[in-house]
Write a structure and sequence with these properties.
heterodimer, A: about 250 residues, mainly alpha, 10 helices, B: about 300 residues, 4-stranded antiparallel sheet, 11 helices, about 25% strand
């Protein structure tokens, strides 16, 4: 039952994305604009060694766009919680938590769409991935896990927000943390302290492993680190969102 | 179909419902009438399984709201104070989505959506996003959603709040139709005339207790169908006037229940005979305050 309910409700989220120009903007144009900016404006000044900057930055932009897109989930969940629709769901013979799984599934759809567009644009401006099918699948797997875990985190922020406006602010936390990673600039170039943070925060292994997989470079421990981090985060955030949802709706 | 005995609920030590009894037989409608904060919505939320009672016995369609919440959810429809619609989706999409969530297959949900849109006179607007709807249309769509599975019991929590007179009468027409179909309905409202228009029986709730129950006519007899609002120059005059006319004093005025022109003339004649000057006169429909003041003997 929860599977059908989630499917129906993720269909709702997808319709929201398609009909809301702001959301489409955030999901597609912003990451693309960011990519163009880094490729043509900042890229020349950033030293990425033997890897060309566009090859370096695509994995980072994808990761950033995922956290960027998750603000829509924060706001969407907060909106549902402040409007009457969740009350109605709870009075119906259905699983009301499907509201959250619907938002998460919708977020994954939105992310896949924006990823597709970004890769296409990236290819157009010099991105040259050399991965085989397995490399692509592995990268996709890591990104999927990352998206799902981030979306649950976003759902938690949406549940914690007192208002829809507040939710927008809370969502910014998710937007800025990944900037402090290996997404745009190799951490070796940063000052001590910041460098250690960037090297060891959970977004960095996602970016590093996806980049290495797509460019067929040595992946090292980054793939396993990424899986361990985000499976761990997911194992905490998804049940926690369920608990918060129940607490918030049983007032 | 709705049986509530001794219902109690407190929030943070403050009792919101303090021993409420309600009974709605099959195919009947009870209006729960009360001001904001009287406990109406809390009572509805408990009956609709959204909130657990602290004490008492609540059975909907024969099922206990705590032990058999899942069964209760299969027999009820709920229209809350806020419309529970998705503004981005069209009317048709809203209905289909809810039908699917009620467990209908896609085809059945579409068919049911078409039926309900036609019945609620929304067919023309079916493919427009809900955010373009008027208040009355939103309410009608919201009501139609609670009817997707034709539930035998319906809770309507202030279904006309925020609607203009036309929107209200649209909703009233729909509700009358449902009653004719045999649905058992509990309606909450702040408006005496709404209770009067729709319900078989009215229960007046105040501070978590039922302070009066009866047919709308019985309540109206107690209150009068209209109120003559008289204003005077000062409190001294009000005191003198109170000895002559039978009304409720508030500030510099007195509110007197009247029934037609004869009553009005009589009241004014009496004041004239007592040589009391009236500073202002207005005629008003009885407000909920009047009902309370009359029913609770001016205790509020």
């Amino acid at each position: 039952m929860i599977a059908t309910d989630s499917l129906v409700l993720s269909g709702r989220t997808v319709r929201h994305i398609l009909r809301n120009p702001d959301q489409a903007m955030t999901a597609v144009f912003l990451p693309v604009a960011l990519m163009l900016m880094f490729r043509f404006v900042f890229g020349g000044a950033i030293d990425t060694g033997s890897t060309s900057y566009i090859d370096y930055v695509v994995a980072g932009i994808i990761a950033i766009s995922i956290t960027f897109n998750s603000t829509a989930t924060v706001v969407g969940v907060a909106q549902d919680m402040t409007e009457g629709v969740v009350e109605r769901f709870r009075s119906m013979p259905m699983s009301a938590v499907a509201v959250l799984t619907g938002h998460v599934a919708g977020a994954v759809a939105r992310n896949l769409l924006s990823m597709l567009v970004m890769i296409a644009v990236g290819l157009g401006i010099g991105f040259r991935p050399v991965a085989g099918v397995l490399g692509w699948l592995a990268a996709l797997g890591i990104l999927l896990l990352f998206m799902i875990a981030i979306s649950w985190l976003a759902a938690i922020l949406g549940l914690l927000a007192k208002s829809v406006e507040g939710a927008g602010g809370l969502g910014m936390v998710l937007v800025f943390v990944p900037y402090l990673s290996s997404a745009f600039v190799p951490p070796e170039t940063m000052v001590n302290g910041l460098r250690q943070f960037c090297e060891h925060q959970p977004v960095t292994p996602v970016v590093d492993s996806v980049r290495a997989l797509l460019l067929d470079l040595p992946v090292g421990s980054s793939a396993w680190l990424a899986l361990a981090w985000w499976a761990g985060i997911l194992a905490v955030t998804a049940p926690m969102a369920g608990v918060l949802f129940r607490r918030r709706t049983r007032r | 179909m709705i049986e509530v005995e001794g219902l109690r609920k407190a929030f943070g030590g403050r009792p919101v419902l303090d021993g409420v009894d309600l009974h709605v037989p099959r195919g009947r409608m009870l209006a729960l009438l009360g001001p904001n904060g009287a406990g109406k919505t809390t009572a509805v939320r408990i009956m609709a399984t959204l909130l657990r009672p602290d004490g008492g016995d609540v059975r909907i369609g024969g099922h206990d709201v705590i032990r058999d919440a899942a069964r209760v959810r299969r027999v009820i429809g709920l229209t809350g104070q806020q419309v529970a619609l998705d503004a981005v989706l069209t009317g048709h999409e809203n209905l289909v989505m809810m039908g699917r969530l009620f467990g209908l297959g896609t085809k059945a949900a579409r068919r049911r959506a078409g039926e309900l849109l036609e019945r609620f006179d929304l067919t023309e607007a079916a493919s427009r996003p809900v955010k373009t709807y008027s208040g009355g249309m939103k309410r009608r769509l919201d009501l139609s959603i609670s009817l997707v599975t034709s539930p035998p019991v319906l809770f309507l929590d202030e279904p006309t709040t925020g609607l203009d007179p036309r929107g209200r009468s649209e909703v009233w027409d729909v509700v009358r139709g449902l009653l004719a179909d045999g649905t058992s309905i509990l309606l909450t409202t702040q408006y005496l005339d709404e209770a009067d228009q729709l319900a078989d029986r009215v229960a007046v709730i105040s501070d978590g207790r039922i302070v009066a129950e009866g047919t709308a006519d019985e309540l109206k007899q107690a209150v009068g169908s209209e109120r003559l609002e008289l204003a005077f120059a000062g409190p001294e005059v009000v005191r003198r006037a109170q000895r002559v006319v039978d009304g409720v004093a508030a500030g510099r005025g007195i509110s007197v229940p009247v029934e037609g022109a004869k009553d009005i003339k009589q009241v004014l004649d009496r004041l004239d005979e007592a040589a009391i000057d009236v500073a202002g006169i207005a005629l008003a429909k009885p407000t909920l305050d009047d009902v309370f003041l009359t029913l609770t003997g001016g205790l509020r």
